[in-house]
Amino acid sequence: MSRVAAFVNVNRSEAVELATELIQWIESSGHICVLIGDSASAVNREDLAIGESEIDESIDLAVALGGDGSILYMVREVSDFGVPVMGINLGRMGYLTEVEPTLAQLRMQEFFEGKHTIEERMRLEVLIDGEESPLRALNEVVIEKNDTGRTVRLALDINDDFFMSYATDGLIVATPTGSTAYSLSARGPIIDPTHKALLLTPVAPHSLFDRSVVLSPDDNLKIEVLPGSNASIALDGHVVSQLEVGQTLSCTAAEKPARLVSFGSNNFHRVLKEKFGLSDR
């Protein structure tokens, strides 16, 4: 018997409908299902609701029904406990959500039977000056300007050695998984998501050196806000804090990766061809 935790994008009616069907199937198969966030009320199963503080190692599988944003949420909630995450694609891009809705029950049955693999994805660990506990992200951390029409000035140290300063709209530190997210729109390179690296990409920099830099996953980055303007910090698309002049942010690879469930059907190169409309010849 397995314990399954599910998160549903309640703003997508098709996700709510599929979740209702899956819950019935999970329970009829002899497994336990619990629901995180607003998912329980959306499917009228408040008896299955658990709080985020109740998530722990007792969960055997975490399922996200929605788009990549849903799986980013689930990864954030369960990855510190080593729980594998399965994404069911009810969104648009689908870089992270491998399972199509029509195959949801089949793939879950294959998971219970051990017919799957676990793909480990590097995460970032971020410590903000003045905070005691680090934050973690699967895609990226972004330090960006607060004021429209002005740049933010940032100083970057790599392993306690000064590297350079930026006058820029923002600075992205991404994982290989995040190389197809915000960093890509800022002309950063695409990196196979199973690699381990820190990808540094400036956003509209006022500098002759405007290139992305791919760094070792063992590097420790420290970014300081220089006089002129404050900055905001966003992790995986959500603003989490502010940085005032003189404050710093430290970033390195997280000790525990995200663990994504794979069935060998979502080859990264094939996904790229589909998303960018690349022809076979």
SSE arrangement:
Blueprint: E1 3-8, H1 13-28, E2 32-36, H2 39-42, E3 49-50, E4 61-66, H3 68-78, E5 85-89, H4 104-112, E6 117-121, E7 124-128, E8 135-137, E9 140-145, E10 152-158, E11 161-168, E12 170-174, H5 182-185, E13 198-203, E14 213-215, E15 221-225, E16 231-235, E17 238-243, E18 248-253, E19 258-262, H6 268-276
Parallel strand pairs: 1-2, 1-4, 2-3, 4-5
Antiparallel strand pairs: 6-19, 7-8, 7-18, 9-12, 9-16, 10-11, 10-15, 12-13, 13-14, 15-18, 16-17
Would you mind describing this structure in some detail?
By secondary structure, the protein is an alpha+beta fold. It folds into two domains: 3-121 and 257-276, 3-Layer(aba) Sandwich (Rossmann fold); 124-253, Tumour Suppressor Smad4 (Sandwich), CATH 2.60.200. It contains six helices and 19 strands. The chain has helices at 13-28, 39-42, 68-78, 104-112, 182-185, 268-276, and strands spanning 3-8, 32-36, 49-50, 61-66, 85-89, 117-121, 124-128, 135-137, 140-145, 152-158, 161-168, 170-174, 198-203, 213-215, 221-225, 231-235, 238-243, 248-253, 258-262. The radius of gyration is 20 Å and the shape is globular.
Straight-line distance between termini: 48 Å
Q: So, the CATH homologous superfamily of the largest domain?
A: Probable inorganic polyphosphate/atp-NAD kinase, domain 1
What is the fold-level CATH name, i.e. the topology of the largest domain? Rossmann fold
The percentage helix is 10-25%
Q: Major β-sheet, in short?
A: 6 strands, antiparallel
> On the 0-100 scale, what is the average pLDDT?
94
* Strand proportion: 35-45%
The largest beta-sheet arranges its strands as 8-7-18-15-10-11
By helix and strand content, what is the structural category?
A: alpha+beta
**Domain count:** 2
Oligomer: single chain
